[in-house]
Amino acid sequence: MSDFPPQPLSPLDGRYRAAVAPLAEYLSEAGLNRARVEVEVEWIITLTDHSLFGSQPLPPETKQRRRALYLTFGQEAIDWLAEKEAVTRHDVKAVEYLVRDRLAELGLDAIAELTHFGCTSEDINSLAYALTVKRAVTLVWLPKLKDVAATLRGLALEHADAAMLSRTHGQPATPTTMGKELGVFVWRLERVIKRLEQNEYLGKFSGATGTWSAHLAAAPQVAWPNIAREFVERLGLTFNPVTTQIESHDWQVELYDAAKHAGGILHNLAQDIWTYISLGYFAQIPVAGATGSSTMPHKINPIRFENAEANLEIAGGLFTTLAQTLVTSRLQRDLTDSTTQRNIGVAFGHSLLALDNLQRGLGEISLSRDVLLADLDGNWEVLGEAIQTVVRAEVVAGRSQITDPYALLKELTRGRRVGAEDLAEFVRGLDIGDEAKERLLALTPATYTGLAEQVTRTYL
């Protein structure tokens, strides 16, 4: 084993790296450190903008050179921080030293003590995590989720009129259309997407226990909560003024619960599409050169949907753990959140991988309308609902003396296959008005779809 080359332990960093790489820009350790540097740099700029402790606002070119520390953050800084943390054994302290070091290089030693001024590590972490998660979600993960919903919407509208046998409890039931059934998932997803778009990303910046005590000791005349709010909001985050040492993470709990909810809907979709493929409703489009089965050449396995299903389960479990753990912090601070938050990227990584598979899978299927119609034609008994409902209406209208329409149709159809001629003969013998009888005789399983197409086109 000593000769075995180093390998990624997680498949996200190995087999599936290409699919999830955009998340690493934000949710990796390096991405977190870059955001920490950003917070430290912007805090110094804010303090000097307010001319605190005799400092003067930095010239624009100097500010830009300071900001270059995080705007051009790369391998050199990553390596520097790794070496420094090996000595400090504290990641945020290593970032502070990096910023101080670069201040000296710029000849700004006079304001070096403003680095990390009044801050506890969680002031930096709170904002850094909020920045990285917000960017990862809004720039990478949520657009992919919207892409899947848009692809699904296109399929729903394309197949809005494709009559299909329903299977409630797995049994033949009142027909619908494939478009309407796919539209249900679009409708569900877009509600959750709206919640995700409205999610706040909160940050605190109030010192060791959320009281600005050190700040007031240094400058009691300064309105520190106002400066903190200005600073946090300038970073594009929502200010949380009432905290312990940590920001309470409730915004994260809300986000991960919503992400898990979206994943649950997608898991349902993956299983349904898989089932439709197994029924022959969807044909899979062969990919040139791809192997479906290692031993059965005829097969095209629905691996995109199976892969999505599994990764959504992993992501859902991690989102649940994140939400359950982060909602609690003992007294004013404990470190259970530290390790937990380092897995945010893993959760979104598995979710993003699932989204990638779903989008690919949805683009590799073709609706077999002939199979849908054949299935409908083999299940005329589903019209039993229509017949007994019409009979009930005729009874109320005084055009029928039938005493128990449901029992009458139950005796005819339950547990039996009934063909078109059987039903036609049955309808002709019913004690109902001629107009109702003609409507029922004209009905087929393929036309008994109610407002399915209209619902799809109206609401999507």
UniProtKB/TrEMBL annotation:
Keywords recorded for this protein, A-Z: Lyase, Purine biosynthesis
Cited InterPro entries: Fumarase/histidase_N (IPR024083), Fumarate_lyase_CS (IPR020557), Fumarate_lyase_fam (IPR000362), Fumarate_lyase_N (IPR022761), L-Aspartase-like (IPR008948), PurB_bact (IPR047136), PurB_C (IPR013539)
Pfam families: ASL_C (PF08328), Lyase_1 (PF00206)
GO biological process: IMP biosynthetic process
Record pathway: Purine metabolism; IMP biosynthesis via de novo pathway; 5-amino-1-(5-phospho-D-ribosyl)imidazole-4-carboxamide from 5-amino-1-(5-phospho-D-ribosyl)imidazole-4-carboxylate: step 2/2; Purine metabolism; AMP biosynthesis via de novo pathway; AMP from IMP: step 2/2
Alphabetized GO MF terms: N6-(1,2-dicarboxyethyl)AMP AMP-lyase (fumarate-forming) activity
Domain Adenylosuccinate lyase PurB C-terminal: 329-449
UniProt entry tagged with the keyword Lyase: yes
SUPFAM superfamilies, A to Z: L-aspartase-like
Domain of life of the organism encoding this protein: Bacteria
Domain Fumarate lyase N-terminal: residue ranges: 87-308
Function per UniProt: Catalyzes two reactions in de novo purine nucleotide biosynthesis. Catalyzes the breakdown of 5-aminoimidazole- (N-succinylocarboxamide) ribotide (SAICAR or 2-[5-amino-1-(5-phospho-beta-D-ribosyl)imidazole-4-carboxamido]succinate) to 5-aminoimidazole-4-carboxamide ribotide (AICAR or 5-amino-1-(5-phospho-beta-D-ribosyl)imidazole-4-carboxamide) and fumarate, and of adenylosuccinate (ADS or N(6)-(1,2-dicarboxyethyl)-AMP) to adenosine monophosphate (AMP) and fumarate.
Protein name (database record): Adenylosuccinate lyase
Organism, as annotated: Microbacterium sediminis
